[in-house]
Amino acid sequence: MSGSKFLKGTLMLTGATFLSKFLGMIYVFPFQSIVGLKGGTLYAYAYIPYTILLSMATMGVPLAVSKFVSKYNALGDYYTGRRLFKTGLLLMFISGLVTFLIFYSISPWLAPKIVGQNEYGIKHEEVVYVLRMVSTALIIVPMMSIIRGFFQGYQSMGPTAISQVIEQIARVIFLLAGSFLVMKVLNGDLHTAVGLAVFAATVGAIAGMGVLIWYWVKRKENLDEFLEQSTTQSSLTTKEMLLELLSYAGPFVFVSLAIPLYQLVDEFTFSRAMESINKGGEYAENLFSIFNMYGHKLIMIPVSLATAFGLTLVPTITESFTARNTPRLNKQVSQALQIVMFLTLPAVFGLAMVAGPAIGALFSVEHIDIGEGIMLYYSPVALFFALFTVSAAILQGINQQRFAVYSMFGGFLLKLVLNIPLIKQFEIYGAISATAIGFLFSIMFNFWAIKKYANVRFNYTIRRSLLITIFVGIMVAVVQLVKWILSFVISYEDGRGQSIVVLVLSITAGAGVYLYLSIQSNLAGSILGYRFKFLQKQKRREKANS
């Protein structure tokens, strides 16, 4: 494949991945209006364990398979890649089926571990029902990862990109239509609606698999032609082949588990910890729903955007590290971290400042009292999520991914140890604090490893971050001023319409000030200029006048 076609395919895959993640986040707003906070809690109870199992089964597999296939294709050995494809499909089907049967069987045991006694809240049988409904997706999704990776090994990104988007669209449509039908048309039970919502993962998987099968049928003749062109054939045994695949996928699996594992700790400890201080039941469920379901989805939007930009530099970081070009490596690492700070810091602190209007506009004004405080404290933690993701990717780029795994487990252990004591002391803010402490440890460990093994200095990144922080401080002041002025004529606590007005005006004013300061100071041009050429206008004028 030519360089331009490969670049086009990579950009297509990046765009499809972001679109898929974005669709997977924004659906929560209409979903919340259908099922409410209790429904969100029940949904999270099912989806978090499913995400953990799915990550363990598939995360990193497409990339690992593509690396394996492309390696042997480059050697003229197309048979080995096809062997992996067939063996991997069978293995993933068996492992998915076994995982489904285990998950389905242990659901009655898991339910009381998740919700505790909870006499007045969500019942055990309701949790069992949604756990079993979501478990069916485990039969299909793992096989999709093998097929996607195989196509990517031939530098064909279209099947992965299109199937991801179709899978997510089908999931979201079925999720919203099914829950709406049960709750608003049939006046059915909440757990039935949520059960259909989590079963949407299976519907989406079927749609995505249909796209991949269509691509396979369409391209099989061409793929078979490659087999005939093979000039050699590896003597790898099936065991050696799978061990090599696991060596590629392992680090990606562990790093991708970080956020879901933290959420899993909250799922298994929060309700019981709240019960121990006599604050369980509906109150605890509402807190958990805003924190671990709706609020989490909201703060992950800026994280996804920032990391998507920052991670584009990782391949060039690998190239510079391999060439031992330390000055260029320093510049690229600094650039990746600056992008994260530039995009995420204003987003998370801006979200914290408009937490009340955001809760009122996107969810419900009746939940502003408990939601505003949660979002105010939880939003800044999203910066840690972004920094961990990018720093872990940088470690992979300099071939020190083991330290990303060490840091993830170290932070996770801190979360595990601190969570219950902090929840008992500070309720939901204790869970947020434990998450922040765990991720902060992981980030500091990652930075230490980057500095030690890549000889990277962070002085310039720190100076730029201080300037970004000053601009964010000004932005926060403007947002607060706008909210204060608007409070004389409109209150975001009076209704969803009022919340939307306050939210839009506050965000517009804050974002406008931040962008103005960033462009006028050439901060935006320096950090993002090669991506957005118009941001470098001032810089070019300065050169022309010098």
From TrEMBL:
Places the protein is found: Cell membrane
Gene Ontology CC entries for this record: plasma membrane
Membrane topology: Multi-pass membrane protein
Membrane-traversing stretches: 12-30, 42-66, 87-107, 127-147, 168-186, 192-217, 245-265, 298-318, 339-363, 375-396, 403-422, 428-450, 466-486
Top-level taxon in the UniProt lineage: Bacteria
Alphabetical keyword list: Cell membrane, Membrane, Transmembrane, Transmembrane helix
Signal peptide positions on this chain: none
UniProt protein name: Polysaccharide biosynthesis protein
